[in-house]
Amino acid sequence: MKKMFGMGVLTAATFALGTTTEEEIAKLQKQIDRLKVKIGKVNAQSSNDNIKWGVDFRTAIDSINYDMADGSKAGKNDLMSMRLWLNMAYAPDSHNVFKGQLSMNKAFGGNFDSQGYSQSMYTFDWIANEALGDNTLKVRQAYWLYLGDRAFGFDMPWTFSIGRRPSTNGFLVNLRDDDVEQSPLGHIINVEFDGLSSKLDLSNVTGIPGMSIKVCMGQGSTNATPMFAENGEPQYSNDYTVTEDITLAGIILEPYNDGQIITKFTWFRAYNLPDLDLNAVGAGTGNFSSVGDMDGAALSVLIDGITEDGYFSDVKVFGSFAWSKTRPDGSVSMPDGIGGTVQSAGMLGSSESQTGTSYWFGTQLPVTEDGKFGIEYNHGSQYWRPFTYAEDTMIGSKLAARGDAWEVYFTYQLTDALSAQARYTKIDYDYTGSNGFFGNSSGNAMKIADVKAAAAAGQQWAKDLLPKIVESADDFRFYIRYRF
User: Fold this and answer.
1) 24 and 135 inside one domain
2) Which of 157, 171, 214, 248 could bond 199 through an S-S bridge, CB–CB 3.0 to 4.6 Å?
3) What range does the domain containing 237 cover?
4) What are the pLDDT digits (tens) for 58-77?
């Protein structure tokens, strides 16, 4: 009886309050919905208002050895270094992106604060973050990228970017460096550059998978005087006593890219390229002069998976052919072989325009679920001259070799954030000047065998030169890398 009475009272109360309760619940639900929208907007705004950071920190030890043309040796078997990259990204909307990268790269216990050679107060920074320096952070990348949907009213996605562009660790070089590929073709361009690029995606209008074309322009140095210039010129004006502005313009074409077969072609022309007068070098400074222009081109092909499934679906093979052509001008100073200098017009030791070539093959094989083994070979001719000064090899660019270079490496992913690599690079040079500049002094492409023969015949200039010529070099590296 009591139970039935209680149920009756509850039913009556629920009926009496039913309308009011339903209205209150509806009102509360609307308020909750409004709060969800506001919170979503706040979260989105908060996310867009903050730069996203990533860390890439590598510690390495290199054993480097040089065999000189006179029979002597040089090197260091315990070169320890640390490289820090702080990666930045910010996207306020779907069309605009900012990306940046701060860098430190130094030897353990070292403070090499001279980033390459300088003339007076003028420098160019092709290797500002690749050469071992000090413990300060420098800007390695800083650029704005616009992503468009339709170019010229057609179904052609497009991009435009300007700033300190990602112009190192390009296509194919990125495999051994265990990085995502950057903009250039690594066979012929691997230096830091300030400039702009614009890309058209042609795949929709042509029906060819991945077809695109990119226009690139950049500046590698300036002859603008600094503030309080030593020569008394007005600040930031042209100083014609130093090298002219180094500029570059070119294209990158992807004829076909379906994700498995990737083809890329590049062509460029670089203007006012420098040479370093080796006789003027002292205390980390040098005497630079403009010696001419140069054309360069490369065609690179990567097959990312030989078969559709099975082991060989994860095997990568590639081949690349590159070409360079000098355009010398003016009169430049070069050693005369007896301690003085003579005036000589030319580039790379020749007064004529010269053509150089290089070919490069390689493969990357999965060894375990988390391990990759790679082997590469490249060969360069006498007058081969790429822009690969920032290549990540302590003994100099292997791809710049006027001779033969072999490389093997094994990369293993230890955890989600940690990886390790062991790598061996061996370079045998046939000609001098592989890691020099573009003129007749540091870039002179003399046959090493001819210099040795001249020294054996008693010619003093050749005897003096032999101790400065690297005939072969090798580098064994082991690193641990944290990336997250």
Assistant:
1) no
2) 214
3) 53-483
4) 999 999 999 999 999 999 99
